[in-house]
Amino acid sequence: MVRALAGLILLLAAQPVFAQPPDWEVDAHAGHVHGARILVLRDYHLPAGETAHGTIIVVGGAATIDGHADDDVVVLGGRVRIGPQAIVDGEVVTVGGAADVDPQAKVYGGVDETVVRFPDIDGHWSPMSRGWFVGLALAATVLRLLIVLVVASVLTLVAPGWVRRISWRASEGLASAAAIGLACQLAFIPVLLVLVAALAVSIVGIPLIGAMPFLIAAAGLAGTAGFTAVAARIGARLRGTTVEASNTLFIDMLLGFALISAVTVFARFAAFGLFWNGPVSWSVSAFGLLIEYVVWTIGIGAACASLLARWNGPQPASASAGAPVVV
Questions:
Q1: Residue 43 C-beta-side C-alpha neighbours within 13 Å
Q2: Cβ atoms within 10 A of the Cβ of 43, count?
Q3: Are residues 283 and 153 in the same domain?
Q4: Tens digit of pLDDT for each residue in 179-189?
Q5: Residue that finishes a domain, picked among 82, 115, 148
Q6: Domain range for residue 110?
């Protein structure tokens, strides 16, 4: 393993190459290849009858050894196959891939295979790493939540009035906000396509097609503002107050955001356990995503409703129904 680590250090010290390095020396008469081989995003094959002197390092590709390698064979992110006539004086190391070594092959340094196998849907063992799959899902979830949190924080600090207005609209009609939000989600893509088609057939409207990305970004910003407003409403309820009476809107948003995303984050971390692919884990993950979807739907509906209606705000409890209100 020490020699394999030395090979990795050589990989980091050398310049990345995608073709044969110029310092290779080929002895055409003896069939020997001299010098270390470092291949990136390429496959390597050592034919039978040839000898490779030096460490063989393959990154992002596969390696097939049918000849004689007098040093280590290191493959990162790919598979390695050792043929029946192959002779490897060093160690065969694979990281993230499987090693297929023929029983008749001679590997004097041993085989170090760093890969975790787990059963797939059919019950067969797959060489895909469980840690990579679970880690990728966790990274995607954290990145998504982090982006939403950053945008929500900016909206809370820059446009608190808009967030309060949407939050009040959501609390006044929870069911109607959810219905409007669901209708907006279903109609967004068809309306966008119809709008693009209408602009495309018009000479005046063709330049306006370039504004479509800004329209989509504005819709995403409005939806995120709705999510922020609902999260702030939940956080204020946790503190025993309301968004209208709270003077710490940012803290309310953080508390609500943490509560909304807690189930999803817990499910992602729980996936590293023993029952990561069991029905319990998948049920918890689906429940967390359902919570987020409901909050997003209510927030989108409240944001759309606040844009279409004038906000009068909550009326003071002491004001009588017939008393005039002086502004």
A1: 8
A2: 13
A3: yes
A4: 999 998 998 88
A5: 115
A6: 15-115
